[in-house]
Design brief:
- By secondary structure, this protein is an alpha/beta fold.
- It has two domains: about 80 residues, Alpha-Beta Complex (Quinone Oxidoreductase, Chain A, domain 1); about 160 residues, NAD(P)-binding Rossmann-like Domain (Rossmann fold, 3-Layer(aba) Sandwich).
- The strands form three sheets. A six-stranded parallel β-sheet has the order 6-5-4-7-8-9, with helices on both faces.
- Helix 3 links the parallel strand 4 and strand 5.
- Helix 2 packs across helix 3.
- The longest helix is centred in the N-terminal third of the chain and has 15 residues.
- The protein is globular and about 55 Å long.
Length: about 290
């Protein structure tokens, strides 16, 4: 948004999608929230609802209480990657999401899924959500080798593949044994734009789904015969139970069924620390989430 004006209609603008904090005041329709509750939220960049400020106004449906064992810095990293993972499964793959009240309860149940960018926040969130939605699904994920232990031993990925492997499609096929490839691919890092052979990892007898997160760039064109689906935030109303997704996260956290996707790098305190954090982002961030306390 700052460097490229992405989704900016006018300046000045208060950015910030992710965040957590303490409720200062509740409205008449705030439900069971109270002043003093520690919460996370899905914020809306613009003015009063962006998270890059000391106070923000957020609708109750986009707010979730956090357990006492979670720090605000940890909770602040959860919202967008969780939401995107929900949309990848519920909208792109059209899988059942039994942990969401009134959510989809039927649909595709892939036997295997390859997640390109497993060590990203969205990848790490989706891995957990996919395990909750379809426990028997074989989950494969790519990442640089330094993140393999986090994916395998912390998040429980069945097969971790080096993202730089010269035989990535073959590695995926070998991991699925007799199925000759995976049923679906989730690409959260636009790998399909440069790694055109990645589509060979899809099983010729499966649904051959390729789901891609919209990042503002042009849609990646998949080969003929591949069911390519690009999803974005504005598609959320298509999801049954969409009004309950943040409350579902609250319950998953309380039941200890959802982990912190990535380690937190606490950059500093105050608005001035945002400059430092944005500078770190421009240099490149891998396998961690940057957090600033305001």
């Amino acid at each position: 948004m700052i460097d490229q004006g992405h989704r900016v209609t006018s300046w000045p603008l208060v950015p910030g999608l992710d965040g957590a904090g303490v409720i200062e005041q509740v409205g008449d329709k705030a439900g069971d929230f109270m002043d003093g509750d520690r919460v996370l939220a899905l914020f809306t960049p613009g003015d009063s609802s962006g998270s890059y400020q000391e106070y923000a106004v957020v609708q109750g449906k986009n707010v979730a209480k956090i357990p006492a064992t979670w720090s605000l810095e940890e909770a602040a990293t959860l919202g967008v990657c969780y939401l995107t993972g929900i949309m990848a499964l519920g909208i792109a793959f059209k899988t059942p999401l039994p942990f969401i009240e009134d959510g989809p309860n039927s649909g595709l149940q892939p036997s295997s899924v390859l997640i390109l960018g497993g060590s990203s926040a969205v990848g790490a969130a989706t891995i957990q959500l996919l395990r909750l939605a379809i426990p028997d699904c074989k989950i494969l994920a790519t990442s640089s080798t330094r993140h393999h232990d986090h994916l395998r031993n912390y998040l429980g990925v069945d097969e971790v593949i080096d993202r730089n492997s010269s035989s990535l499609p073959q590695d995926a096929k070998q991991a699925t044994a007799g199925r000759q490839g995976v049923d679906a691919i989730l690409d959260v890092v636009a790998a399909g734009r440069a790694q055109r052979d990645i589509f060979e990892a899809l099983s010729p007898t499966g649904p051959k789904i390729y789901a891609q997160v919209w990042t503002g760039d042009e849609e990646i064109v998949a080969p003929e015969g591949v069911n390519s689906i690009m999803f974005r935030g504005r598609d959320l109303p298509q999801l049954p139970g969409n009004q309950n997704i943040v409350r579902a996260l609250e319950q998953l956290l309380q039941e200890k069924r959802y982990k912190l996707p990535l380690p937190v790098h606490h950059v500093g305190h105050g608005l001035s620390a945002l400059e430092k954090a944005l500078g770190l982002m421009r240099q490149g961030v891998s396998g961690e989430k940057l957090v600033v306390s305001i």
